[in-house]
Amino acid sequence: MTSSTRNLFNIQYKSGAPSTFEEAVLSKYEGLSSYQRPRTLLTLLRTNAVPSPMEEGILKGSLFHVQNDIRRIAADLGRLSSDGDVEMLGHDVSRQLHNKLVLLEEIERDHRLPLLLIRRIPSEILMEIFSYTASFSRNILDTSSAPWVIGQVCRSWRSVCISMCPSLWSSINIFSDPCMHKKDARSLLQTVLSRSRQHGLAIRLPSSIGSITWEQLISHGERWTNLHLTDVGLPELGYLSHLRGRLGTLQECYLEFTCEGLDFIDVFDHTPALKEIKVYGLDLNTLFPITSTNLETFVDDRDEWLTSTSIHDQHLKVLQASPNLKTFYAPYRCTAGRTVFPRIIKPSLSALTVCDNSLIRSLSLPGLEFAALFNDCWLNLADCLADFQDMLTQSQCNSLTTLEIYDVLLRPTNLLRIFELSPTLTSFRYQTHEWAAQNDDALQSIFRGLSDSAELVPRLKDVVLELALFNETNIHCANYTMVEMIAARRGSSLQKFHLTASVPSEGFCDLGEDDIERLRDIKAEGFDVAITSCDSLDIDRSRQIYV
C-alpha cells in the first residue's frame, strides 16, 4: 500500500484497527446504506408541489451533505485508481463503492427535482404555455395525450389546466370512428365541453359519429367558431339543420359533401362572423347561400362545372356583399349568366380562380395578384382570355404576380397583351388537355416578345407548360424561338422553364440537335430547364427526355 493511500485511510476506530484494508475503505461509508430521504422530499416528490421557504432550506441542507458524500467517494476511487491500489480492494468492494455512488447520485437527482424553476412558474405563464399546445391537432377523446396528461402532472398543473385554460378543451378533434366506440366517449366529450366553459369551439369531425355526439355538440352551437366536416351526407345535414340561425360566431367552415339531389342548403345563410368558407362536392344546381360582410375566403368547388343561372347569381351576390373578400374560387361555367354593370369593384380581392365569361366581365380587381383561369378538362376549351384581358385593363391592375391557365384557348393577341399589362408577373403556368393551332401561335408570340424586350414582364422567374393530350396533334411551340427566349432571359430574372408533354405519338417538338445541345449547356450552367415527353396512353413510361 502506498503512503498516500495509508494517509487517505488513516481511520481511528473505537474498538481497534480494522482487520483488513477492505473493511477500512467500506467503513467510511457504512452509514450510507441506511440513508433515508427526508420526509419533506418524499412528500414533494409525491405531490409535485412547490416547496415552502422552510422546506426549501431543509432540501438544500440535505442536498449539501449528499453532494459532499458523492465528492468523497469519487475522490477516493480516483486516488485509489491513480495509486494503482484499486486492485487491492477486490471486485466486490469496488462494486459496493460504485453502488453507493449510484445511490447517492439518484438521491441527488431527487433533491433537485423540487428545486427546479419549472415548479415556480406563475400560473399565468403556465396558462400561456398550456394554451399554446391547443394549436396542435390531437384526438380530444384520447386521454393519453394533451390536454388530459397535462392535468396529471401535479395538483397545481391540474388546477391551471382545468380552471384557467378553457382553450385547451376547445378543439373538438375526432380523427377516427373507433374512438367513438369507447364506452366512456359520451362522458369524455361532456367533460371536455364543460371544461371549455364559454370559449369558442373548433369542431373537426369524421362521418358517422353518432346521434348522441351530435346532440352534445349542437347544444353548444352558439360557441362554434370553426367547423371542418368531411363526408357530409344526409344524416349530417339533418343534424346541421338544427343550427340554422345559431352560428353567429362561426368564422371558418370547411365542408366536403357526398350526398346528391339537394336543391337548397340554408344552414349557413346567417353567419355574420364568417371569414372563410370552403365547400366541395355540391351538385350542379344546389344553392348554398351565405351572408357575411366579414367574408375573406370563398371556395365553391363542385363536381360539375356547367351550372345554372341561380348559382351564378348567388356568386355575384357573394362578391357584392363581401367588402373584405380576398380569395374567390368558383371555376364554373354558366352559358346564360348575366353580366353586372357597372362592374363590381373589389380592391381587397387578390386571388381569383374563375372561368365564366359573364363573371369575369362583372369584376374590377385593381389589387389582383394571383389569377387562375381554370376550366374543366372534360369540357371544351374555354374562351375567356379576351374578357380577362379587358378586366385587367378596366381595373387598371398592375399587381398580378401569378397567372395560371388550365384548358383555356390561348389567343395570341390577348395573351401577349395580358403580359404587357402585368409588369410584376413572376410565374406563368399553362396546362391543357386539348390543343389548337392558336395555342402554338400564342406561345410562340410570348417567346418572341420575351426574347425581344427585356421590359416585358421583367420579373418573370418561372414558366411551366404541361400538355396532356390524348389526340394526335401537331405541336410546334418547342422550337428555336423557345430556345432563344431561354437564352435571352436566363441572365436576368428567369430561373425555371419546364415543358412536359403527354402525347400519343413521337416527335412533339421541333428542336434540332443544336438546340438541344444548347439547352443542355444552359442547364449545365445551373439553369432549371426540362423538356420531356411521355406516352399519354401510358404516362408512367418515359418516352423522351430532351433536356
Short description:
The protein is an alpha/beta fold and 547 residues long.
Keywords for this entry:
15-stranded mixed sheet; F-box_dom; 17 strands; alpha/beta; F-box domain-containing protein; two-stranded parallel sheet; 17 helices; F-box-like_dom_sf
Q: What separation lies between the terminal Cα atoms?
A: 81 Å
Strand content: 15-25%
Main sheet properties: 15 strands, mixed
How much helix, percentage-wise, in residues? 25-40%
Low-confidence stretches: 1-19
User: Regarding quaternary structure, how should these chains be classified?
Assistant: single chain
Cα gyration radius (Å): 37 Å
- Going by helix content, strand content and strand pairing, the class is alpha/beta
Shape: extended
Number of helices: 17
- Record the strand order, biggest sheet: 1-2-3-4-5-6-7-9-11-12-13-14-15-16-17
Mean pLDDT: 84
InterPro entries: F-box-like_dom_sf, F-box_dom
Organism: Armillaria ostoyae
Protein name: F-box domain-containing protein
Domain F-box: 119-173
What this model shows, in words?
With 547 residues, the protein is α/β, with parallel strands linked by helices. Among the domains are: 117 residues; 92 residues, no CATH class; 138 residues, no CATH class. Helices cover 37% and strands 17% of the residues. The chain has 17 helices and 17 strands. The strands form 2 sheets. The chain has a 15-stranded mixed β-sheet with strand order 1-2-3-4-5-6-7-9-11-12-13-14-15-16-17, covered by helices on one side. Strands 8-10 form a two-stranded parallel sheet. Strand 16 and strand 17 form a beta hairpin. The chain starts with a helix and ends with a strand.
